[in-house]
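Supplementary Methods, section 5.1.

A reviewer requested that the exact input to the structure prediction be made available. We therefore reproduce it here, unchanged from the version used in the analyses.
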Amino acid sequence: MKMRFATAALLTAGLLTMGISAEAQTTMSVGDMAIIGVNGDNPDEIYWVPLIDLQAGTQVYFTDSGWLGDNSGFRANEGAILFTASAAITAGTVQTFTSPPSGEYATANDANVGTNGVAISTGGDEVLAFQGTTASPTFLHAVDLEDSFDSDATSSTETAVPLGLTENTSAVAIASGSTDDNSEYTGIRSGTPAAIFAAINNSANWTANNSAIVLNSAPFTIGGGVNTPPAVTNRTQSTDIPTSADTITITADITDSDGTIASANVFASINGGGFSSTAMVLDSGDTYTVDLGPFANTDTVEYYIEATDDDTDTTSLGDAGNSFFLYVNDNRPAVGEVAITEIMFGPNTDAPYSQVDAEFVEVLNLTGTPKDISFFLVDDSNLRNVAAPAGTTIPANGYAVFANSASDYGTFPAWTTSSGAAPVVDFDFGLGGGGDSFVIKNDAGTEIDRVDYENDANGWPNVDDTGSSIILIGDASIVDNNVASNWAASGLNGTPGAANVADVTAPLATSTARVDANPTTASTVDFTVKFDEAVKNVDPTDFQLTTTGTVVGTVSTVVIVDPSTFTVTVNTISGSGDLGLEFTGAQDIVDFPNNAFLGATPTVNEAYTVNPSSVHDWKDLD
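The structure derived from this sequence is encoded token-by-token as follows.
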């Protein structure tokens, strides 16, 4: 759960409760009110509707604390808010709550529901409505955003069906997917309280989304069962990923409790143009059907369904701007046509590496045809879906780069479909340094490719926080990219948007050069040691002195200048003679793909002449 509501509001809630306790209020029963919308993305929102008239002073509690399966009470790890009507409310008038509590809504945390406050989890949650007290609640309605109610409340996002309620009759679980934390009732808004309450508790009449929904506050028309509008449910379409050769069949169940269906139409718009209607026909029972298309490649088709009964009451499933979509494309990649080929999950932001603090994943198009991944999803082991924008194309035999901070990659182009360019795609989640998953799905939710990597375990390379990526080695169209042995550590920074080449060459030291004046009488001197590539694990124990005469000293420090250049300091120098530097036989220097340095003497290997004035030619004293 998210923590956002200040518990300091408890005093306000307590005073408010005491102040109205003697006033009249409407005591409701199951079916007298219903929750009709919940947004878990900030700010949290709860929309509800009374199906009977309410007196001023009427109170209703709302909580995201789960109800225990043994009916002994709440799990009591969250909190509650208390609504108190400041005036009489007419049946059908939608009531709206937006966090934090204010006005008619006050924090009502206590030991029975919890003291952490109401905060709808972005991973799915529940909202329970009740009257009475937190110790002895009379439940009125419940909405579960996690596909189904649970047998018990063992976590902050679980609840059993509350006491006195029945799933699909007086409590509804939204079939939304574990990341769809925003849901709204979209069914009938006119009819008897019983008909409306029944429709609200049918999950087919709800729309869920991972992003916040603009909840509908339009009033309900509460009547005696006359002129109830039709109900449109169970919409399907024959394909979620059509090509220009496909005709799309759309079906829906359309019913009317007090009459007959006069007409049913699908209103469709192509590429943002005006909506035009096509009549649906009764196929069998209550099922109506219509064929749309075929459409041109790259067309975006928006549509909604509208039904009218013999009393001229009309119901829409969706509407302009809040509709269903078809994205027509002949170039979507299928399984085996794109592959994840590089993953950077441990950038090194420490100086002098100073990499951008951004992780990336490289994806290769294995075909000779550009592949459109518009609206494809990427996610990780926590199922945090992020969709690629319209127009995202991976060039033929080219790359796309997914980055969790794409704007930091100044050398990469922005979103583009230019031939040969690697589009950079933003995702808003981090990759685990110890291991994680990266999954690509098409816009129908079908998994296209995935890699479940680890770090330095079960054969996976050790690169976390080193500045190296892991790269797929071998032909990506042949090797299995979810097998550890097919991956290796890259060089520093990796190669996003470029071919992977396994580095199996040992690094070389190219020079050891004096930094200070020579000859020298100093007790401390520096050498600059250069390698032909970035290396790591360089420290004083990797070096030893070469000397002549009586000179002695100590290799004291190694300071990194850049990933391939190091300053080695020798101090406590005394005596006289030549002083040079060489590698020990036990050094452990490696490059970033972990190829071991073999310790060979560099081509340029300078030495200092130390204290030359103390070396006398005794023949001059004859």
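The longest strand covers residues 552-562. These observations are discussed further in the main text.
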